[in-house]
Design goal:
This protein has 233 residues and is α/β, with parallel strands linked by helices. The chain has five helices and ten strands, in the order αααααββββββββββ. Strands 1, 2, 3, 4, 5, 6, 7, 8, 9 and 10 form a ten-stranded mixed sheet that branches. A hairpin with a 2-residue loop joins strand 7 and strand 8.
């Protein structure tokens, strides 16, 4: 199915869900239609389930994951209203955050092997101009920011690996044109933008490569982001 069709369908489902909820509240305020109001109150989560399932038709894996989370949330609301089981919002979000942190930690453990580790904690790290040489390394950024401008930097021949773990922080990397680049990242409640292609939200991942064919230098960038953002341009 085309992206425009699915986007239009999701907009209509969301609109119908809001109208449905509004009618339910209005009927309750005026004490109208007891059985009708009960049906509305019990069944409106079906639209949330359909809204989430619509994302399963997307090609990107992160959109499918977001869709499943929304669908399970709607299923929990529906089951609670129909008396199938008790849906506890606090337990749902506690479980969600626990799983998100486990996945984020797993991604950190799977980070690439690099020569040097840099810690940026509640501070900034900046390199720009022609007087510095790029070396492979990892960055652990906690409530801080990193800015690397490689356009005039001395970049060694062959491949250089950069690895970023970002928690409540940000990274900005500027690249020269005559360079092969590989970008790979995962974000939880954050954002990624690699060479104009973006991903983010509740969960997102992105892999982008630029290959010139005759370039003698390549930079490999890997990142894991929690409540932050990484931009490569």
């Amino acid at each position: 199915m085309g992206g425009g069709f699915m986007e239009g369908m999701r907009s209509r489902l969301l609109g119908v869900a809001i109208i449905w909820l509004g009618i339910t509240l209005l009927a309750g305020n005026f004490q109208l239609g007891g059985e009708f109001r009960q049906i509305l109150n019990q069944s409106w989560p079906i639209l949330i389930i359909l809204f989430g399932l619509s994302y399963l038709f997307e090609t990107e894996r992160d959109m499918k994951i977001i869709g499943l989370i929304i669908a399970f949330f709607g299923l929990g609301l529906l089951g609670d209203r129909l008396g199938w089981f008790i849906f506890n919002m606090h337990s749902f979000w506690s479980t969600f955050w626990s799983v998100a942190l486990i996945l984020f930690g797993w991604k950190i453990m799977g980070g690439g092997t690099v020569d040097k580790t840099n810690w940026v904690v509640m501070s900034g790290y900046e390199r720009k101009g022609s007087s510095w040489e790029l070396k492979g390394g990892s960055f652990h950024i906690i409530m801080g920011g990193v800015e690397l401008d490689l356009r005039d930097a001395i970049i060694p021949e062959g491949e250089t690996n950069l690895d970023f773990t970002v928690i409540m922080g940000g990274v900005e990397i500027r690249l020269p044109d005559e360079l092969d680049v590989s970008c790979e990242g995962t974000a939880v409640l954050g954002g990624l933008e690699f060479l104009g292609q973006s991903s983010g939200g509740i969960y997102g991942d992105r892999i982008v490569e630029k290959t010139l064919g005759d370039a003698s230098r390549k930079v490999n960038i890997k990142c894991r982001v929690f409540l932050g953002g990484v931009e490569v341009k």
